[in-house]
Predict the structure of RebB like protein.
Amino acid sequence: MAFPTAVNDQITDSVTQSNVKVIGEAPSVALSSLYQSLAHAAGIAAENLVVQQQNANSLALAVVTRCAETLLGTNSQVQG
């Protein structure tokens, strides 16, 4: 301790150690939070790519089906 106080030395030492521990862990906690956020963002980006690919495949199937119907002359469109 730097100077004597009216508080018990053990209490001030434990508070000082807790503060040093928190300050010492701050960079690693910040980096781990950053890594977790980046991993989450990358996961969402990959999920969006998969959904986009599925939608593109569904659209391509619909286009091929329509083209085949047109070529074969079997238009099965529902008449209302």
User: Anything to note?
Assistant: The mean pLDDT is 84.
